[in-house]
C-alpha cells in the first residue's frame, strides 16, 4: 500500500485541480509528492494594473514588475515554513510533508484562479478585498498592498495578547479559577503540585508572551484564608514571594512576576472579584493562597509593532480562509469556540449574529474543516469588540446599583418636597451620576483579522485538499497539521 502511494505520487496522480474548500471561497491546485515528502500549493493569478486618471498617475513597466516581485516576496515570507502536515498512520509516520507555495502568474485571465487588480493611489490607503462572486475571482488592492499597514490599531492587538495570557492562566482550572493557587493552612513553601501547576502556566507564558508584549506582568498577591492562623507572621507576603521567585527563576531576565499587595485600587478590585466566585477562596473561604493578576503597568506603551500586510491577508482568502472580523454568524462555529475554550471569554463573541447567509455558510465550512482536522478555531470577533474584564464587570454592576439607588432617592425627594425644594437640589448636587472604569477594545492578531499571526487552523484548507488528493490511500483522520519547527 505504501509503495502504491509513493508510485501514485511519482506518476502525478495525487493532485486536485481547482480545489474549492468547504468555505466555498478560495481556489487552488495541489500536488502531493510522497517520495519528496512535499505538497505543492499552486495559486494561478493574473495581474491587472489600473491607472489613476483623476490624479494623472500611470503604471510604468518597472513599477508593475516591482509590485509583482514584492507581492510574491511578502506572501512567501509570511506563509512559508510555518506548518507541515504529517501522516499518523502506523508505519507511515515518515511522511511529514513540507508545504511549498507557488504563485504562478499567467498571461491570460481565462486561465487564472484570481485576477489581482492593483489601483494606483496618490496617498496611502489601507484597502483590499476579494469578489468571490465573479469568475475568475477578483482581488482588489492598491499600490501600497505590499507595505506594512500603519492604520491598524496596535493598542487593540496589545489588549488582545494581554487577554490571551489572562485567559490561559484562568483556564488552568474549571470555571476560570486558574489564577488562584491555594496553600495548606499556615504554609508558604511550594509543594511539588504547586510547582507543577506553575510550570503549566509558564508554558502558556512562553508561548504567548512574545517580545512585543514583554511589558505585561504577573502581579502576585498573597492572601490568608479561614484555615490560616491569625498569629502566623507575614504569611501573605511569604506566599507571594515564594510564587514570584519560582516564576522569575524560570522566566529569566525581565522580572515578569511582581509581588503586590492590596494597597492599590486595582488590587482591591481583583480581590473583591475573587470573593464573588463560587469557590469563594479567601477570608470567608477555607483556603488561603496567592492571586495572580495579569496586568500592564501604566508606564508601559500598550502597542505592538506594525506587521499587517494587505497582500498576505488576501492570499489567505485565495486559500479559502474567511475574514475573522465579522463576529460569529454560525451556530456550529459558536459551539466549537465554546468547546475549544482557548480564547479569552472576555473577548470571545458571546452570541451568534443572524441574517448573513453567506457568512454563515462560510463559517460552517470553516468549522467543519477545523473539526475534522482536530484544530482550534481562531477567535472570530468583530472590529468593535469591547473587552470587559471580570473585575470591570463587577465594578460596572456595583456602580449601576449605586446609580439606581441615587435615582430612586432623587425621585422620592422630588415627589415629597418638589423639584425646586432645597432637599432635592442638595441631594442632586451632592450625588452626581457615577461611571464605571472604561473598558478596553481589542482586535485579533490573526492574519485573517488585523494582525500577522498564522495558526494551525489557517492550514485547514490545504489539509482538506491533501485529504482529497490522497483519499484512495488514507483517511482524513490519518493526516494532522504540525508546526514546522
Structure in words:
The structure is a single chain. The protein has 485 residues and is α/β, with parallel strands linked by helices. It has 3 domains: 2-151 and 456-483, no CATH class; 154-295, OmpA-like domain (60s Ribosomal Protein L30, Chain: A), CATH 3.30.1330; 390-430. Helices cover 36% and strands 17% of the residues. Strands 1, 2, 3, 4, 5, 6, 7, 8 and 15 form a 9-stranded mixed β-sheet that branches. Helix 4 packs across helix 5 (235-250). 38% of the residues are buried. GO terms for molecular function: metallopeptidase activity. Keywords: Coiled coil. Residues 389-416 form a coiled coil.
Number of helices: 12
Quote the beta fraction: 15-25%
Helix-strand string: HEEEHEEEEEHEHEHEHEHHHEHHEHE
Query: Roughly how much helix do the residues carry, as a percent range?
Result: 25-40%
Q: Characterize the overall form.
A: globular
Domains, number: 3
Number of strands: 15
Largest sheet: 9 strands, mixed
* Stretches with pLDDT under 50, minimum 5 residues: none
Give the N-terminus to C-terminus distance in angstroms: 29 Å
Cα-based radius of gyration, to the nearest Å? 28 Å
Chain-averaged pLDDT: 89
Coiled coil: 389-416
Keywords: Coiled coil
GO molecular function: metallopeptidase activity
InterPro entries: MetalloPept_cat_dom_sf
Amino acid at each position: 500500500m505504501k509503495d502504491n502511494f509513493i508510485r501514485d505520487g511519482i506518476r502525478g496522480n495525487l493532485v486536485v485541480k481547482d480545489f474549492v474548500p468547504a468555505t466555498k471561497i478560495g481556489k487552488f491546485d495541489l500536488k502531493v509528492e510522497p517520495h519528496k515528502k512535499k505538497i505543492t500549493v499552486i495559486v494561478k493569478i493574473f495581474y491587472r494594473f489600473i491607472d489613476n486618471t483623476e490624479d494623472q498617475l500611470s503604471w510604468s513597466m518597472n513599477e508593475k514588475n516591482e509590485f509583482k516581485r514584492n507581492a510574491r516576496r511578502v506572501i512567501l515570507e509570511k506563509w512559508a515554513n510555518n506548518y507541515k502536515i504529517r501522516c499518523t498512520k502506523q508505519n507511515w509516520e515518515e511522511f511529514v510533508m513540507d508545504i511549498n507555495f507557488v504563485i504562478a502568474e499567467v498571461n491570460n485571465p481565462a486561465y487564472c484562479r484570481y485576477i489581482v487588480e492593483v489601483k494606483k493611489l496618490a496617498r496611502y490607503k489601507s484597502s483590499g478585498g476579494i469578489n468571490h462572486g465573479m469568475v475568475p475571482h477578483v482581488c482588489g488592492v492598491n499600490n501600497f498592498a505590499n507595505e506594512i499597514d500603519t492604520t491598524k490599531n496596535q493598542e487593540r492587538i496589545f489588549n488582545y495578547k494581554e487577554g490571551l495570557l489572562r485567559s490561559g492562566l484562568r483556564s488552568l482550572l474549571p470555571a476560570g479559577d486558574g489564577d488562584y493557587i491555594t496553600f495548606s493552612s499556615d504554609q508558604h513553601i511550594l509543594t511539588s503540585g504547586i510547582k507543577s501547576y506553575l510550570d503549566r502556566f509558564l508554558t502558556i507564558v512562553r508561548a504567548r508572551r512574545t517580545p512585543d508584549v514583554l511589558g505585561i506582568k504577573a502581579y502576585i498577591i498573597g492572601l490568608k484564608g479561614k484555615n490560616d492562623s491569625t498569629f502566623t507572621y507575614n504569611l501573605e507576603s511569604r506566599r507571594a514571594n515564594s510564587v514570584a521567585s519560582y516564576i522569575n527563576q524560570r522566566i529569566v531576565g525581565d522580572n515578569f512576576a511582581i509581588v503586590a499587595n492590596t494597597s492599590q485600587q486595582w488590587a482591591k478590585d481583583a480581590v473583591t472579584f475573587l470573593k464573588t466566585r463560587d469557590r469563594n477562596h479567601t477570608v470567608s473561604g477555607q483556603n488561603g493562597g496567592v492571586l495572580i493578576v495579569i496586568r500592564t503597568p501604566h508606564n508601559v506603551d500598550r502597542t505592538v509593532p506594525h506587521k499587517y500586510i494587505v497582500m498576505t491577508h488576501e492570499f489567505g482568502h485565495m486559500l479559502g480562509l474567511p475574514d475573522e472580523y465579522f463576529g460569529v454568524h454560525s451556530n456550529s462555529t459558536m459551539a466549537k469556540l465554546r468547546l475549544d475554550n482557548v480564547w479569552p471569554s472576555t473577548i470571545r463573541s458571546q452570541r451568534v449574529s443572524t441574517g448573513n447567509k453567506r457568512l454563515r455558510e462560510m463559517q460552517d465550512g470553516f468549522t467543519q474543516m477545523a473539526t475534522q482536522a482536530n484544530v482550534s478555531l481562531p477567535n472570530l470577533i468583530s472590529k468593535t469588540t469591547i473587552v470587559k474584564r471580570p473585575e470591570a464587570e463587577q465594578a460596572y454592576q456595583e456602580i449601576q446599583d449605586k446609580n439606581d439607588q441615587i435615582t430612586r432617592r432623587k425621585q422620592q425627594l422630588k415627589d415629597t418636597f418638589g423639584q425646586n425644594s432645597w432637599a432635592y437640589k442638595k441631594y442632586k448636587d451632592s450625588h452626581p451620576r457615577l461611571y464605571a472604569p472604561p473598558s478596553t477594545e481589542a482586535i485579533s492578531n490573526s492574519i485573517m483579522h488585523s494582525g500577522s499571526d498564522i495558526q494551525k487552523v489557517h492550514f485547514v484548507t490545504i489539509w482538506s485538499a491533501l485529504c482529497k488528493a490522497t483519499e484512495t490511500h488514507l483517511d482524513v483522520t490519518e493526516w494532522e497539521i504540525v508546526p514546522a519547527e
